[in-house]
Amino acid sequence: MFDSLQDNLKGAFKTLRGKGKLTEANMREGLKMVEQSLLEADVSYDVVKEFMHGITKEALGEKVMLALEPSEQFIGLVNQELINLLGPVEDGLNLSKDINIIMMCGLQGAGKTTTCGKLAKLLMRQKVKPMLVAADLQRPAAIDQLHVIGEQVGVEVYSDRDNKDPVQVCRDAVAKAKADGCQVVILDTAGRLAIDEELMEQLKTIDRDVQPDHVFLVVDGMTGQDAVRSAGAFHEALELNGVVMTKLDGDTRGGALLSVKHVTGVPIRFIGVGEHLDDLEFFRPEGMAGRILGQGDVVGLFEEA
Amino acid sequence: KKTVNVLNTDLRDIVKEGRLVDDAFLEEIFALMIRTDMGVASASKIRDDIGKKFRARKVEFSDLVGSAKETVREIMQQGSADVNFAESGPTIIMVVGVNGAGKTTSIAKLVYRYKEMGKSVVLGAGDTFRAAAVEQLTVWANRLNAEIITGKSGSDPASVAWQATEAAYNNDHDICIIDTAGRLQTQSNLMDELGRINRLINKAANKVSEGSTAPHEVLLVLDATAGQNALSQAKGFSEAANCTGIVLAKLDGTAKGGVAIPICQEFGLPVKFIGLGETPDAFAKFDVDTFVDALFDEN
Ligand SMILES: Nc1nc2c(ncn2[C@@H]2O[C@H](COP(=O)(O)OP(=O)(O)OP(=O)(O)O)[C@@H](O)[C@H]2O)c(=O)[nH]1
Ligand SMILES: Nc1nc2c(ncn2[C@@H]2O[C@H](COP(=O)(O)OP(=O)(O)OP(=O)(O)O)[C@@H](O)[C@H]2O)c(=O)[nH]1
Ligand SMILES: [Mg+2]
Ligand SMILES: [Mg+2]
């Protein structure tokens, strides 16, 4: 479906081989192509603009290397800059306390509940005992969904079907987790729009009340331009300290991740790559940069050069 | 309940300042349109049309919206339509889409809509895969007082679809809506499964009522927050399941769902309904003019 940026860039830089320096004039066409490619990958307009400004400055005056096609050299710069912006990585969670609370939040249908299960499974493998908490009292059968997932993973699920107050549910769950010797409590909150004041206030109350050690925003990998607005609003309300991007098992280029990283500045912790509870991976900026550029294997290209 | 979060300079203000339509202004229009997720091609078209009509002139805000409406209408070439109802017998509707797009909730909304019109509805809980998906649809069926056909978790979704179709004909329902599990368009075996469900619905309809063809409508549910991947979704699901229309869910947020514009153009799929919240009544028929007005709403 997408033209290969690499091929197009070859054309744009054809006349440049082995000749002097990159200038604004001889890069113009190539810059335009990269800009368009990033927009098609769903990187937010403003982030693209800023990125293009930075990359132009970076590339200006750069000597065209003899060993490489100028187009390859240029895309290498772009790729490296994307990697810089997406990183640094932070593998593993700091779980130093007796009881560590992780709160999942995000828009409706992003993949929060599934990710709670995946995270619990990951922790189990590390011999850490997690508890899942059904704090979504809104979506029909959300509690059942978490129970089914909990059963699949083999972890305790706390729920209270009679309680209408998610804040109280979270509070009670933490007490229960302490009593049961669970080291990690994972709160599955209801999906909500960042502009829904009432529901955002509720999330802030949970945040104040149980003081989670980690607040993760779960973002759908197919998200478009809205990512900046919603992630910005969640970050403003909750001070996120991690992002999980889901549904990257498909063919989405996932440019929204760059937007989310740009507005929150917090590390991207995990990516979701399937519906099964094993389908959670640590984040690697290298692969993601190539994917956003629509360029499978830029990294390989540069290792050879 | 909602706050308007103005992050960008409001176009209305820019126009009020009496700026000329020049390159910088056209770039602002382009940026605004890109932010709706309509993609580079559609955004360029709207920008260029405005440029052609108004370059070097001063414009009113309404001129801009008017021009964009014309362009979008030209690109989308669709009116406002309900589902394709069967000429006789029950109307069978199949609902498909990627994970978490809003399929099951949109089904609840359709039930509410047709119940309000005095029609009787039966549901087929064809998502036998996702945790508690059957329970979720059952909650809606109970709340909205609709019959529901379910299979065991992990059972064959095509068999649920078959039974629901049969029930629709045998119990004289007006409408039958079949839910399916979310899947990504790149998962070819799961996409093939949709084709199989589709064919079995037809077979069931034919068996109960000779000469009938079904489903009458295959609705692709798109998440309005989705970006350009929605084009790939429309392609994949159309090919696998013969989609006939789109439900654009989650338009109550800040996302504009602009990607529906190129989708409509490339795949000839009309947008039929929009989702505006999590309750069954938060649903409306699609209207191009309202849609374009909202594209210019900078919240
Ligand atoms: N393909 C794929 N599907 C996923 C992934 N993560 C979650 N899903 C699916 O996405 C859909 C929504 O996931 P949920 O976990 O229910 O999302 P949620 O954010 O809890 O949704 P709400 O509670 O309604 O806001 C389900 O069909 C999941 O199976 C992923 O990484 N890849
Ligand atoms: N704000 C808002 N939320 C919606 C809308 N439609 C659905 N949702 C929410 O989005 C989430 C996912 O909706 P579902 O109907 O479960 O989506 P689905 O496509 O059936 O998901 P899977 O079956 O897991 O693939 C739920 O939390 C819904 O309440 C809408 O129009 N607006
Ligand atoms: Mg959930
Ligand atoms: Mg569903």
What overall form of chain A do the CA principal axes indicate? elongated
Biggest beta sheet attributes of chain B: 8 strands, mixed
The structure class of chain A reads alpha/beta
User: Which compounds are bound in this model?
Assistant: guanosine-5'-triphosphate, magnesium ion
Any low-confidence stretches of chain B, pLDDT <50, length ≥5? 1-8
Provide the β-strand percentage band of chain B.
5-15%
Number of helices of chain A: 12
As a percent range, the share of strand residues of chain A is 5-15%
**From the alpha-carbon coordinates, what is the Rg of chain A to the nearest angstrom?**
22 Å
Distance between the termini of chain B: 14 Å
> Could you state the order of secondary-structure elements of chain A as H and E?
HHHHEHEHEHEHEHEHEEHH
Major sheet: arrangement of strands of chain B:
3-2-4-1-5-6-7-8
N→C terminal distance of chain A: 28 Å
Mean pLDDT of chain A: 91
Q: How many strand segments of chain A?
A: 8
Rg from Cα of chain B: 21 Å
User: What is the averaged pLDDT score of chain B?
Assistant: 94
